[in-house]
Amino acid sequence: MNVILTGMPGAGKSTAGVLLAKTLGMSFIDTDLILQTNAGMKLCDILALRGAEKFGELENEALLSVEADNAVIATGGSAVFCESGMAHLKKGGTVVYLDVPLPELEKRLTGIRTRGVVMKEGETLAQLLEERLPYYERYADVTVRESGGTEETVAAIAEAVASCRGKRE
To answer: Is the whole-model pTM more than 0.90?
Structure first.
């Protein structure tokens, strides 16, 4: 079974994901890196040159291309809008929503426009979170609220995943 991490940009999916994979003895996959590799350009360049709609198509293709077992998979922040891609990942594992408070996200995302985040012109981070929250909650098997450093978050994810899997058996 895989562990699929979702959440806002800056939630720590990639950072916590690498440590979680090491802790649990799993491999690590970052779907943003798959997307960049497939497109041959950075996320922000895909958005600038091809637009948000094409970005979404490419992101969905990246999600659908993941064939993994016993992996921690960090998804892009907008992956939850890719219905078939998320369904593909969800059937192979436990989806964890990393819930980070808005003030903390704002501290972490000083260069949000250069990160390759799918946002409408003039949209604030608070509005983006409000738009995405129902999708994160829809796909999540478990939610982990960040309350501390990366190591604490990794421990909370590992505990939540173990508990969730125990309930399924």
So the answer is: yes
